[in-house]
Amino acid sequence: MAHNSELMIDPRSGFCKSNSIFYSKRRSLSLPQNEFIDVATFISSRPHQGKTAFIDAATGRRLTFTDVWRAVDSVSSCLSELGIRKGDVILLLTPNSIFFPIVCLSVLSLGAVVTMTNPLNTPREIGKQIVDSKPVLVFTTQSLAPKLTGSNLPIVLMGEHGDYHAGAEVVGSLDEMIRKEPSGKRVGERVNQEDAATLLYSSGTTGESKGVVSSHRNLIAMVQNIVSMNSLEDEEESFVCFLPMFHIYGLGAFALGMLARGSTVIVLPRFEMNEMLTTISKYRATCLPLVPPILVALVNSADQIKAKYDLSSLRSIISGGAPLSKEVIEEFLEKYPKVNIRQGYALTESTGGGASTHTLEESGRYGTAGLLSPSMEAKIVDPESGKALSVNRTGELWLRGPTIMKAGYFRNPEATASALDSNAWLRTGDLCYIDDDGFVFVVDRLKEVIKYKGYQVPPSELEALLFTHPEIVDAAVVPFPDKEVGQYPMAYIHRKAGSCLSEDAVMDFISKQVAPYKRIRRVAFVASIPKTPSGKILRKDLIQLASSKL
After folding, report:
1. Most exposed of 166, 204, 388, 545 (fewest Cβ within 10 Å)?
2. Which residue numbers delimit the AMP-binding enzyme C-terminal domain (predicted)?
3. Residues 6+ positions from 345 with CB-CB distance below 8 Å
4. Is residue 253 classed as helix, strand or coil in its secondary structure?
């Protein structure tokens, strides 16, 4: 348990009455004392017994750990020759692939900063991120490169490609970089643990997505957290990864963390149920990370799935993104009795740290997100009074620890000030309580972000687009519950007088401007949008109204 020895801390709950802080009950993280070390060097120096690092699920191509680090050395040398230096931002626009981690590690080893974007995003959305993050180079595929038209950024092409004629400057291909012998002339600069490493964009509710700056120290702490987790399997671990590597869940755990752990990651470019199940069967995968809607689908179609696919190798499920109900967990365990469920809670702002279950015993506590991550501290704060609460009291969860973003949001001091206080506490925006045994339970969200299949959809971004429609006077977007996807965006629209604007027309207007997961899938027309005297949308009223229509 990480704490000052003079504090009187309840060993059962981890709660300290003198300062109202909950301390992690897990063993403290062991972090490198060397001030100058990058996360790539840290991961490469870790001992492990693993042989195969990554497998391409579609082609069967395998990369050993030796292959990975040889490729990282070659690619980083090529990037250095292209003039990439410490602090430069490099953009990745690509689906999951076994080469995604190689690009990330190569960039990080130079002290440059990695930023990523969702391949489903529109050119408008990608363009906004480019304007904000100012990358100097892009890694992308030939099929996605047209989304960069007008950016004038030099491109390194990934994967199969022929002649490319889209007006952008192609400065090389990843295949060529990997095959090239390291030059030995790489320009090396000392990387401090506190230097920026990643710039990941997290959806917000008071504006559009914000860039979260994580340091090398944040990533090292995250990797150590993953390495410290107990294995529930006796044999070698193999994980199926279809979760997007541009997200902290996919990047942190499966592009970086499992590499340090020595586990095998079987990579799918995206989620497709049949491909996921075929991959588990073909490669005898032992662990499946997912989000709750997929777990629900596994339950609902259990008989058909077990008749068609051999899932006998599967030992554990890791679920994140939203809480699982006791009923869903019990039904899953009834249908798949040999598979254990582990849950977790994390944010982009906490670099994947927060809470998790590690053991069979911990997983048996239904509904919990788990115990606080190693070296993590927490407060439960009353949103109205600001008073820190004790055990079994519900309030906003505040977190502090080595994985919490230090620099805050990129070029956004106002958002940073609202999320981080002067004592480095991160206000998560989630209503939670911590029980007598130190387990975290997520009750509800203070934040208004919509969770669609694990993707985050900020209502304000959709509202801003709706306001540009000439026949819309006012609009509000709220989450609408759905068993299959979790939530989807629903719009309440106040039309101009005499307008005949239809539900389909509203949905089509938005669908042309945003990624598929952000699309509005339900519309209701109202005489006015309910608001507070200060002009804030009364979303709770609209959510209640939407629920009454179920």
Report:
1. 166
2. 461-536
3. 320, 354, 355, 356, 369, 370, 430, 440, 442
4. helix
- Whether 21 and 377 have beta carbons less than 8 Å apart is answered as yes
Domain at 39-433, CATH from 3.40.50.800, 3.40.50.12780, 3.40.50.1820, 1.10.3660.10 = 3.40.50.12780
In 3D, which of 227, 162, 209 has the Cα closest to residue 412? 209
Return d(Cα 73, Cα 181) in angstroms, integer. 9
Q: Which of 115, 102, 117, 176 is nearest to 148 (CA)?
A: 117
How far apart CA 258 and CA 50 sit, in angstroms, is 10
Buried b (16+ CB within 10 A) or exposed e, 40-79: bbbbbeeeeebebbbbbbeeeeebebebbbbbbbbbbbbb
Using the structure block, give the residue that is written with the tokens 């994967």: 159
Residues 14 and 25: beta-carbon distance below 8 Å: yes
- Scan for tokens 């999320």, then name that residue: 419
| Identity at 69, one-letter amino acid code | W
Q: What is the residue extent of each domain of the chain?
A: 39-433, 450-548
- Owner of token pair 């095998």: 264
Strand, helix or coil at 300? helix
**Rg, Å, the chain Cα set:** 23
Q: How far apart are CA 297 and CA 293, in angstroms?
A: 6
pLDDT digits (tens, 9 = 90+) for 268-309: 999 999 999 999 999 999 999 998 878 888 998 999 999 999
Strand 439-445 and strand 450-452: the pairing is unpaired
Structure tokens at 491: 């719009």
Taking the C-alpha atoms of residue 197 and residue 189, their distance in angstroms, rounded to an integer, is 14
- Sequence-distant (6+) residues with CB within 8 A of 85 are 110, 111, 112, 187, 189
466 contacts 510 by C-beta, under 8 angstroms: yes
d(CA 476, CA 467): 10
pTM as predicted:
0.86
How many Å apart are CA 271 and CA 258, to the nearest integer?
Answer: 20
Quick check: 361 and 340 in contact, CB under 8 A? Answer: no
